[in-house]
Amino acid sequence: MNKIYTVIRKEYLERVRSKSFVIATLLGPAIMSLFILMPMLLSDTGKDEERIVGVVDPSGVWLKPLREMLDHQQRGNVKLQSIGSATDSAENRVGRMKKMILDDELHSGILISLDFADSRAVTFYNQSVSSLVVRDEVLRPAMNQILREARFRAADVPDTLFSYLVASSSWSSIVLTDDGEQVQDDSVSIGMAFVLIMIIYIMVIMYGNHTLTAVIEEKSTRMVEVLLASISPEDLMLGKILGIGLAGLTQFGIWTGAFYVLSQRGIEVGGFSLDISFLTPVVLISFIGFFVLGFFLYATMYAGIGAMCNTVQDSQQFHTTLAMGLVIPMMLLTMILRAPDSTLSVILSLVPLFSPILMFMRVSVSNPPLWQVGLSWILMIVSIWFSARAAGKLFRMGILMHGSSPTWASLIKAIKA
Q1: pLDDT, tens digit (0-9, with 9 covering 90-100), for 81-106
Q2: Where along the chain do its domains lie?
Q3: CATH architecture observed for domain 48-161
Q4: What is the sign, positive or negative, of the torsion defined by CA atoms of 230, 234, 238, 240?
Q5: What is the CA radius of gyration of the chain?
């Protein structure tokens, strides 16, 4: 036991004292948060860019109310420019508008049909698919509103009745818990869930890769031959995994403390506020549990692969394949968010390689039955046991091996031996 403790202490101190650990601890949360905040900030920035849209209105009726509607909707970044005069034919005006679009004098253009009140026809001219955002988010809603108002006026419907008919509902969300009720901020809950999932994703891959490279480095420097004179391969592997895992937990503890302090100060960036209330005991315990189990599951596999490889380059084919166990669930997060309790979501979240991401997402945005969370933990623990046995065999056989680069076939053959 003292020998394992010595290895744990060596691996732990070697990492927490390194410059890379300090830099990652300081910059890690900021970099991971950018995955959530950057799209919001870029979205807000894009709204300030001025776009000039050409308008051909043969009837001369719709341009003025369209301008007023955009002003009412605070769409000041979209400017409307009338093309030609009423004496010109619609074909000539459209031709001139097309040329201005191709010459980049206009962002895009629209042709409002002469009988728009009846036909509802509007033609949109543009150069790229990106222009469709202006069409769908700005021009189409405004024209729909104008059309409704025009039809109500034609039917002599009073303005008060029109306002009454087009009124929309106002929603608020209340979360029911055993401790009572609280108002729910959907954006904060989903944003915090994604931040914590990014932490699990990055830390499991990063510290799993640390395990792999640590084994390869000691093997390549022949330091492992000295270590194995006083400690068994299994104990050496266990010590490395525990030491590297404790370093990861230390980093997480620092981040949690900093997050708590910032949340108490009411920090808000890009409309996204840090809310410590999201970290309920269930979410916090689940986060720690899935991080620890996810780390041990991947770390044991990485350690076994590292023992069979002679260089980091040899391990890339295996590293990429194992990393897909975390990349694939990241691609499925939107599906889980939309239907966290569907049959497919439940089945995928119980797959041990996917559970650290998908089951934790379900815990964050829904209330899955405790038996499902417990079953995912049991399946991960069983997988860790089988993975540790296979990794121990690979570690014992491969730690002193030097020669040709390993393949998946040679790894399977070594496990079966």
Answers
A1: 999 887 888 899 999 999 999 998 99
A2: 2-41+185-416, 48-161
A3: 3-Layer(aba) Sandwich (3.40)
A4: positive
A5: 30
